[in-house]
Every structure is written in structure tokens, then in C-alpha cells.
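Bit of a strange request maybe. I'm writing a small parser for C-alpha cell strings and I need a real example to test against, not something I typed by hand. Could someone generate the C-alpha cells for this chain?
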Amino acid sequence: MGIVYSILNKDSEPLLSLRPDIPRHIEQAVAKALVKDPARRYQSAQELIRDLKPAAALVSTKAEKSIVVLPFENLSPDPDNAFFADGLTEELIAELSKVRALRVISRTSAMLFKGAKKSAPGKSNGIS
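Reply from user aminoacidic:
Good idea to test on real output. This should exercise your parser:
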């Protein structure tokens, strides 16, 4: 019951106090959307969109270069060498992560493909 009372009667904490890096016009739009008096809130989605349009200019349209290092497979007859394949995958991820202009997909995400027998999308041979 205390939560409902707070929602209906208390002002919410300013967004800037939680995230000081938020642009001012976004903070103002959120504050207006949360005003207790319905007559002072946005009356349409168009009003909200109009106030958020400056935020759209902040979104980067620059394509980000990314790569995933797929897990290496142990092709040797000795199953004890599997650690070498995993270590090689980890080393490549670590070294590529040092390239600032490149986003490297995490080891955890890459290891989801370990043992998968799927070919990569691309040209006729499955390699792009």
C-alpha cells in the first residue's frame, strides 16, 4: 500500500540525480511524463516525440566494426588437447580486444557456438 501512496502522492526523484550524464531535454521530458497532474503531462505521443527529437541527433549512425572469435575445435586424436583450442580462442579474443576501433564479442557469447555444426551465412561455401 505504501508504494501506491508514493506513486500517487510523491514526486519522483529527478533523473539527473540518478544519471548525471543524461541530456537535460531528456530529463525534462521524463519529468513531464511523470507529473502527477494529468493536465500537465504529455497529451499525445507527438508531443513527447517533439521534445525527444533533439535526442535523436545524439544517436550515432556510424557503423561499428565488430568481430566474434568462434571457438576452435580440437582436431587431434588426443582429447586432452582440447584445452589448447580453448586457450587459442581466449588469446585471440584478448589480443583483438586491444584494438580500440573494434568491438569484440565476449568469450561467453562466442562459446555458445562451441560444438555447433552450423555453417556461417555467406557465399556458396559458407564463408563470407
